[in-house]
Amino acid sequence: MKKLITLILFIFSMQIFAGQYQVTKQKNVTLSKEQIEVENKKIEERLNNYAKKDLKESLISEFKKVIKDIPEEGYYILLELFSQLSNFIVENTKIKIKNIKYLSNTKAVVKSKITMPSSDSFDNLNEGELEKKFIKKYNLKEFENTNDLKTLSKLGILMADFIKKEFKEKPSYRVIEGDINLEKVKNGWEIKGI
Fold it and tell me: Hey, what's the signal peptide range on this chain (predicted)?
């Protein structure tokens, strides 16, 4: 579960743009200042779309493979939990483009700084506290490890709420800096490597 959450954190790291950035170009680049401004906007839109749509679809596809053998009712419960956590991560992730470097008129490298919730927010779950809240909220005598789908659904919702609350009380972020390679295809930019 921790590896899946860490994967979610990284994948949704390409989310929200913040602030201005530097633009550089190689000597062989013949784009005018106005053309570069237009291309910068297209690159921003592509990265934003990649985070909001492409990566989310890819991640959901991978998640579906992991839970494929779960009965239909449980499958949709886990998918909903995953969606809630994904939205939480997206809402709390920011990306700052530090530099767009045009290697040619059709190739660019984007240096970025990504700030996202740290996996510490998920690793430090106090299982005892979570169990007590679960028992109290659902009026149980004691917590039983069960495969009952209704119980798992309730626990999943409680866990998502607990993670959100813990993060708001003790926010923990990590910063990742990296390069994203893009290539112009027709009138848009495609990501060729991260």
Answer: 1-18
Query: Number of structural domains, the chain?
Result: 1
In what order do the strands lie in the sheet containing 173-185?
Answer: 22-25, 94-104, 107-117, 173-185, 188-193
List, for residues 93-125, the tens digit of each pLDDT value: 777 889 999 999 999 999 988 787 776 656 656
Q: Is 77 exposed, middle or buried (0-12, 13-18, 19+ CB in 10 A)?
A: buried
Instruction: For the chain, give the number of residues.
Output: 194
Q: Look up the domain containing 169 and give its range.
A: 2-193
Q: Name, in order, each residue with C-beta under 8 angstroms of 169's C-beta and a sequence gap of 6 or more.
A: none
Tell me the pLDDT tens digit for each residue of 54-83. 656 766 777 778 777 877 767 777 777 777
Cβ neighbours of 85 (radius 10 Å): 21
Do β-strands 107-117 and 94-104 pair in parallel, antiparallel, or remain unpaired? antiparallel
* Nearest-angstrom CA–CA distance, 38 and 52: 21
- Model pLDDT, residue 101: 97
User: Phi and psi of 67, rounded to 5°?
Assistant: -105, 15
Handedness of CA 62, 57, 77, 139 (dihedral sign): positive
Q: How far apart are CA 120 and CA 135, in angstroms?
A: 25
DSSP state of 142: S
The β-bridge partners of 188 are 185
**Dist CA 114 CA 16 (whole Å):** 9
